[in-house]
Each structure stands twice: as structure tokens, then as C-alpha cells.
Amino acid sequence: MKVKKALVMTFLLTFMLSFTICNNTLAQEMPSDLIGNIIQYDPSVPLNNGEDITVELWYWTGAANLFESLATKYMAIHPNVTIRLVENPWDDYWTKLPLALQGSDGPAIFNIHNSHHENLIGYLAPYDIPVGDLEAEFTGVSGHLIDGKIYYTDYGLMTGTVYYNTDMWAAAGLTKADIPTTWDEFREVAKRLTIRKDGKLIQAGYSYNGGIQGDVLGMNYQYGQNLFTWDNKISLNNDAMNMVIQRLKDMYEKDGVCDYNFGNNAGDNFGQGLVAMYLGWGFMTNVFGQNFPNTPFECFEIPTPTNDIPYAFHRYNGESTFGVNKNAPADQQSIAQDIILFFLANDAIQKEFCLVNAVFPMKVTLQDDDELLSIPSVAILKDHIDRYIWPGPMPSTVEDNIKIALENIFYNNEDITKALTMAEKAINEDLEYSDFTSQEPMYKYASEAKK
Amino acid sequence: MQGHHRGKKVLRNSSEVALRSIAVFLMSVFFLLFFAVPIGIAFIGSFHQWNPLKQQFDFLGMRNWNRIFANGLFWHSMKNTFVFAMIAVFFRVILGLILAHVLHSKLIKHKSVYRTLYYLPTITPMVAVAFVWKFIFDPRIGLLNRLLNSDINWLYDGRYALAAMLILTIWKDFGYAVVILLGGLYSLPTECFEAAEIDGANSWQRFTRLTLPLLRPMVLFVIIVSLISYFQAYIPVMVLTQGGPGTQTYLVTYLIYKEAFSKYNFGYASALSFIVFVFIAILTAVTFKISGKNVPF
Predict the structure, then answer these.
(1) Complex-level ipTM
(2) How far is it, in rounded angstroms, from Cα A120 to Cα A323?
(3) In this complex, do B262 and A400 lie within 8 Å of one another by their Cβ atoms?
(4) Which pLDDT tens digit goes with each residue over B43-56?
(5) Which of A401, B5, B201, B283 has the most CB atoms at less than 10 Å from its CB?
(6) Chain B residue with Cα closest to A430
């Protein structure tokens, strides 16, 4: 009897001990600490009933490390989930992805760029995260609401800023105090930074060669002029746009800060040390860092017509959060929703994505982060982040046609009004076949726009 | 009996008949699947607002077609394409003819070396070549401006941009004409030339009176193949100018590309493609008509 009792006791002890060890192992693999503040992720919740599952995550070429990092962190918490990363070149991505999403074997989760909104929105499942929670933690969520649901939003904001070569700046006797805030000041500084030798341009004070369409579409806001009318037609031939383009022309033709033959890519020419100032979007921070590591540069905010706070400094565009494929099997969709929750709740991952893409964080908790604010193109946005406007996911025809108009004006000497009228007509013809809806009315200061 | 079978190929046995039938069947299936059906779908699609990426296929009637003919950019692109194709074909044939003739002459040694050198650009991928030429055309650091001691913005000056595309295209393609025409020259009957020489014809007379007429089928072949290819030219625009400055270098194939893969307006792009298809067909027919017959294909 005693032997039997001893055996039972031994068995019970062994069982309890092994359970404890096992539990500890589980506890190590499944951290129980909640991640996040309002949007919270509970890593201890088992997924897919603990059964193995594989989901595909598609993204375009450029930042593979980011996606690998996200997948590794997620799979460390959920060993039964395998995230298969599929990379495609940018152009291929936008034809392959929508076609893949039409079937049931497309990727469960994928990277989104809002310029392809129209082709993707029909395949997206809304986020499971309550909209209120998203709005509380992320800036700009309201612009992405569709019938009260969020299909994707932005984790980072990017816009146009002025990059300047600090060596050239110092060589011209300029200091931080000379950083221009108005366009008149900018033109004066550009003149000082321009160097000619025997009449030949050696160093351009400012160059926009090779395309400035991305920035011209946005400078109009400084004059209170929206890009779109209430019925979603574009408005280009207006006083604001005429003034913006005339000023750019004058900088070359009257001020002589550059000429149209001085290189065909102002960004590259800035990196090569031929151009002192360049107006480019935030991603150029990384381009310069990678391609031209020896070019010293800083940034300042885009100048405005006067020192008064404008209707908006510029337009911005967001780096989008992931999309969930509504045609994917339910178990894969569930994992995709969980990855998005993990991604949005996790400040460290949000910060990693913002750092790599040099974008201003949309997550409120990161907007004062010192490391992020050490990125020159990010730091300058902090003071008036609310004065940047998102016009919505503009179809490609908008940028294509303004590019044609600007080249006709700058290179083919076409009249500004004529070129803008042609572009306006071409864009509006295309918009007739588009579902595009301007987000300008959603802007915080929309009521200040010119009527 | 023998006369009865003259001109007809007698099939030897049933396995040959089977093999022929299978080959014809497979070719027909291939043609149907990859040519006839897509062309048919594209034709139907040209009457629709068609975006396969969002599964949109809405009937528009003749709207796409009407838009094309009312679109100034279409006519401008067609004019550019026509000019581009004519100049490129002209120089490809002329250069090809001259160099083939020179290589055919007994005075030239190491002919295979020259043949290889001339043909090298033809077998090099167009995209790679176009990127190299983009540097050559650069207004600041480009080789061409240095050689010419000029200050031309080849790709952004409307007066030169199309010419720059032509320079690249002709440089890339003349080797093809050289090889084809050289092959043609080697196949010409030597007796005619010997007889002409005995009769006192000088080299110019032999070239104009004998070589050219005898070579006409090969020249026509090069012209037609070049016309078809240049009406579909797209890579030089894509890499060098993207249609610019403004729309100065828009070719119709680039317009089709922009409509299909930038605006995802496949219906409109299909209608444009059909117009180009018909245009090339007419141009080929006209070329046949003008030049006579005897094309070796």
C-alpha cells in the first residue's frame, strides 16, 4: 500500500513538475505582457488553435529588412505561424497583386501604396481594430474612412522639404540664421549660392531640373487654393498655380540660379555637389545617405509666400499600413488581422518603419521621439504638422499631366495658362472614369480655403 | 502518272500524316490561344471601360474610339511615330546597304571581325543600351557633347529629343540590315557580275544596274520588318525621354503603354492598338505595292 502511495505521489510530483517546466517554456515563448496603449496586442493569445499555418506577405522591392524584421518578431511570438515573404519589383507588383487578389490563393496580407487605391480597394477587408482606437492613436485616420470602416491608414507622413548642402552654405557665408522662410528670401539665398565662372554655371543655387511636378502639386495650398473642386474636378488654371510656376520660371530666367541644361536630375546633381538647394520629398534623405554619403546636408521647411501661417504649407502623402485580402481563407485573414494589430500596437516596430523610410510618425506616441526627430526632413515638420494637407489617393493621370504641362512650360516655352488649361482638360477627362474622391474637405482647416 | 503527281508532295505513310496533323493542330491551338483569342478579347474590350485589375468591364459603345480621334495627343503621337519610323528605316537600310557592300568587296580583310562588330549592338539588350546612351546624351557629363564640343540638352530640348532617340535606334539596329543584306549579296549569281565586267560596266553601274535590282527582295524584307518593329518602338521613349519634353517624343506605343499600365485604361489602349495594327497592315501593303513582289517570306 505504501509502495502504491509512494508511486502515486511520485507520479503526481513528476506531473506537476513537468507541467511547471512546460508552462515556463510556454510563458517564455508566449510573452504575456500586453503591447501598446489604446490599440493593444496580447501576445499570449494562441492563434489558429495552435495549429500550424502559413500566410504570404507581399511587398515591393526596397526595404526587405523591414518586412523580415516584422515577420521574425511576429513568428517568435507565434511559432505556429509562418509568414512567407514575397518580394516583387515596384512595377510588377501593381499588376501582379490585384490579379492575385482576384483568386482565393492570393497573399493574405500585403503592402499598400495609396496611389493604387482604386485597383486595390475592392479586394480589401476592413480592419478589425475599432476605428475610435485607431483615431486616438494615429493622426490622419479620418481621411481613410470609407463608410465608417478603415481598410488601411498611414503609419508615416512624407512631404516636400528643402535640402541644402551645408558646405556650400558655409562657403557662401550663410548661417542658420539665413534659412529662408519666405520665397523672396529663398530666391536671395539661391542667388548667393550660385557660382558662375566666365559666365558659365558652375554651381546652381537651386535646381528643379528633371521634374518638380510632385511639389508644384501642393504649392498651390500656400495661397489657399485647393487642387480639387467640390465635384472632384481638378483646378489647375488658377492664380495660385500661375504664381507658383511663374516664380519657378523667374528663378531660372531672371535670377539665373540655374538653367535647364545644368543636368537632368536635380536630386542626383545635388548629391554630386553641383546644386546647393533641392526641393525633394522625405525619402530623398535615405537616397542621399545611401548614394551620396559624402554630401553634407541639412533640411528646412518649404518656404511660403509670406511669414503668415498659410492655409497649408504643402501636401503630404502617407506611407500606408498593410491591407488584408478579403478573398483569402478565413484562417489566413484572421492571422493577417492579427499581424496588423501587432504592427500598429508595437511602438518599436512603428519606429523602425518610420526610421527606415524617413517619415514623420503618424502614431501620436512617437511624434516626440528624439531619434525620429533627428532625421532632418522629419524634424522640420514637427511645428506645423497639422498644416499639411492630404488631397487623397490621386490617380496617376494628375501627376502625368502636370509633368507634361511643366515640361511644356519650362522646356518648350509654352504659355503657362495654355499648358495648365490643357493639363486640366486631360485630367478631368480621365477623372470622369475614376472613383477618386478628394480628401481636401476633410482637412482640419478646410474652411480657410479659397471659395 | 508521274505528271499527275508533279507539284504535289506525296505523303509517304500514315505516321507522317499523323505527325503533320499533330503539328498543324498544335500550331492552330497555339495561334488561337496566344493570338486570335487575345486579339478578339482586345477588340471587344475596345468598346468597354475595361480595367482587369479591378474586374471592370463596362460597355461604352464607340466612346473610346471617338475619344481617340478627338485626342490631339493621339495624332501628335502618330505623326511622331511615322517620322521616327521613316527616318529610322531609311538610315538602317542605307547604312546597311553601304556597309554590306563594302564588306562584300574583295578589298576588305577580316570580314568576320567587322560583321561581328556591326552585329554586336543588335544582340545587346535595348534597355541596357538605352541606359548607356542616356549617359552619352547627358548635357553635363555626356560623351556626345564633349565630342561635338556642344552644349545641347539632347533629351530635354524639343528640337533634339526625337533625333537623340533616332541616333540610338539606328546605331543599335543597322547591324541587322548589314548581316541580312550581306547574306543577300553572297547569294547573288556571280556570272551576271562577271558578264557585266567583261561588257565594260564600271563598279557604280554594276551596283545600280545589277546589285540593287537583284537585292530588291532582301531590301524589301528589311524595310517591312523595320517598319513593323519601329511602329512598335517603345523602349527608347521609356528609358530616354518618357515622352518628353512635354509630349515631344510621344510615340503611339508609349501612349498605349501609359493608357494601359499607368491609367489601367485597357479599353482605350486596346482601341489604340487596333488603330496601330491597321496602320501597320496598310503601310506594309503599300510597301509591297510600291516595290513590287519577290519578298523572300
Answers:
(1) 0.84
(2) 9
(3) yes
(4) 999 999 999 999 99
(5) A401
(6) B263
